[in-house]
Each structure stands twice: as C-alpha cells, then as structure tokens.
Write a structure and sequence with these properties.
The protein has 7 helices and 10 strands. The strands form 2 sheets. A 6-stranded mixed β-sheet has the order 5-8-7-6-9-10, with helices on both faces. A 4-stranded mixed β-sheet has the order 3-2-1-4, with helices on both faces. Helix 1 runs parallel beside helix 2, helix 3 packs across helix 7 and helix 4 packs across helix 5. About 10% of the residues have low confidence.
Length: about 290
Amino acid sequence: MGGTRELITIDVGNSACKARRWRLDSVATSAVALGSEPLRPVPAPPGPLRSGPSRPRPLRLDAWEHPTRAGLGAELAGWLARTPVDVRAGLSSVAATEVGLELERVLGARLVTPLDAGLASEYRTPETLGADRLFAARAAAELVGRSCLVVDVGTAVTVDALRVAPDGTRTFLGGAIAPGPTLLAEALHSGTARLPRIEPRADAPALGRDTREALGAGVVHGLRGLVRGLVDAVGRDAGLDGAPVVLGGGALALLGAEPFPGRTVELCDDLVHLGLLAALCDALDGAR
C-alpha cells in the first residue's frame, strides 16, 4: 500500500456514538496502535499486525461523539461534511436496528460493507453477538498478538476470550456480559423506593458514610471485584489462565491503576476503533 490513506471508524453503542478519522501514512512503522490524544503520532504495539500486508501506523486526525438518540444521523452528517467525500468508513453498531440503518444511509458510498472482523468464532449464536465485541477482540489480537482476555466497559461490561493458535488462527471463544456502572446505578434507583440516582465515580470510597457514598461504593468497588472475578473465571474456562488482559479506555477508569496483579495489561482507549481500522484495511487491501 503506497501513499497516504484516510479512513473513518464509527462505533455506535447503546449510549453514545463515537467517530474517528485517521490518516495512515505508508512511511510509518508497519504496525497499528491507537493513542488517546488527537493529532499525535501513536506508539507501536509490542508486535506487528498479524495478517495481510504490512500496515502503516495511524494518526488520529479528528474525534467526534454524540449521544445515541433521535437526530444522530443529522449530527453525524454534519461532522462528515468536514471530511473529504472519498474517505471510506467502517461501522460497528449495537444500537437499535433503525439507528444503524439511518447511519448507513448517511454514510452512503463511504461505507465499506460487509466488514469482517477477521476472526473465527466458537459462539453458538453469532446472530446475537455484538459487533463491538468482535472488533474489540480483533484489536486485542493486533495489540498483543497472542491469546488474551478482552475487557471493555460501557453500558455493559464485557469480558471476552480470544485464542491465537500457533498457526496464527484467531478465534473468538465467547465471554461474559454484566451491567456497566451507570446501568447498575440506575437499577438500584429505579428498582427501589428511596435510593437516589447517582453518577458512579472511579474515586468512590469503599466505606460509604452516607447513602450516596454507600451506593457509589457498591457500584464501583462491587464492579471491580466482579470484573476481576470474571477475568479469572472466563480465563479458566477458556484454558487461558494467566493470559494477558487488554482493556478498553473505560475499563481502566473503572478498575483503577493496578486492576489485575500478576497479569500483563495492555490499554487501548479506542479499542473497537482499532479493530474496525484493521478490518477496513483488510477489506480495502483485498479489493485491490
């Protein structure tokens, strides 16, 4: 692949839609990694891309976010109007079907579809598997290049297992889904008569000295324990005891500075976007 390419990745979750625009320059190191700040070259991950031709390192040019709600398509169209019309895009959506269809119409010819995450799967109901989980697992494969556990936090918490065989075959094994911090806090409020609604904070004390603090303690510290327990249990059932853990950016905020003592941990702020970007490169390079 020669020259410079721009690509757009769009991750539509239950609560928010996040779009990123990237520049890939063929003179950069042959690896894909993501940084947390726009307009900054990003560091290379430990290993190269594991499939396809050598790939450049991306530079994030622009970032856009908007709540997943009515009018999302018009808002995205406004952002897209600032980008060249020939920039191709990849979309991952777990929102309602009509939301995904609306965004597909807005993207039009920009959209590369179908987009394959490039993973084998042992999931028994692939039709119910969220695309975000697959693209996050693809990103993890790019970042660590070996079997690992993938933790992401949004409306839901997901802990998934990825096996990388000696021949390079990457297989999504499955995992666990639990309520995320905001959803859990809302359930405590809406499912009781008097408990207030709170905004979970990562710095919540474990010892709550009033009801709001006690709720924060239960949500934040309870979820930390839950995620650590799920990482151990999912890893054990998948035959991946002691495997490295790849965290999405939201996971680190929830889990704290040393979430998994004794394990190698990789952090990627834009985990689903990295998977989308790798899949886009696969699709576009394969079409040449």
